[in-house]
Design brief:
- By secondary structure, the chain is an alpha+beta fold.
- The chain is built from two helices and five strands.
- It has a five-stranded antiparallel β-sheet, with helices on one face.
- The protein is globular and about 40 Å long.
Length: 120
């Protein structure tokens, strides 16, 4: 449904995660609204183990979500290292990280993409 990139917010120099909705889904009924709903839901959450939303915007005929960048491993790396998560306590493998203050990002021109982080 999306690709996540490591990017830099040009105004602040802060590293961010930039999630881009797949172009193949843009014209699929309901996909755009699901992506926007995801942004609204994440925006409403506040927890140390959830990356904070910094903004979302349409650009280049798709939709983007900008979130706080968190160091760590991908799910694939964790599964490779530890195997399947135990049903009783999957959070045992999740690392919490201190959250950084955020500033609003509202336009594609504010982001410089540095590398592809993962696919969702």
């Amino acid at each position: 449904m999306a690709v996540v990139y490591e990017a830099t917010e040009l105004a602040t120099g802060e590293r961010v995660a930039l999630k881009m909705m797949s172009h193949r889904l843009v014209y699929q009924p309901g996909a755009f609204s699901r992506f926007e709903r995801e942004a609204r839901i994440v925006e409403s959450l506040e927890h140390d183990n959830i990356a904070r939303l910094k903004g979302h915007f349409p650009a280049f005929r798709t939709e983007f979500i900008v979130m706080e960048f968190c160091e760590g491993s991908t799910l694939a790396e964790l599964l490779s290292r530890h195997g399947a998560f135990p049903k009783s306590r999957p959070s045992a493998f999740w690392a919490s990280s201190p959250r950084r203050s955020s500033s609003s990002t509202t336009a594609a021109s504010c982001i410089a993409i540095s590398s592809r982080a993962t696919s969702c």
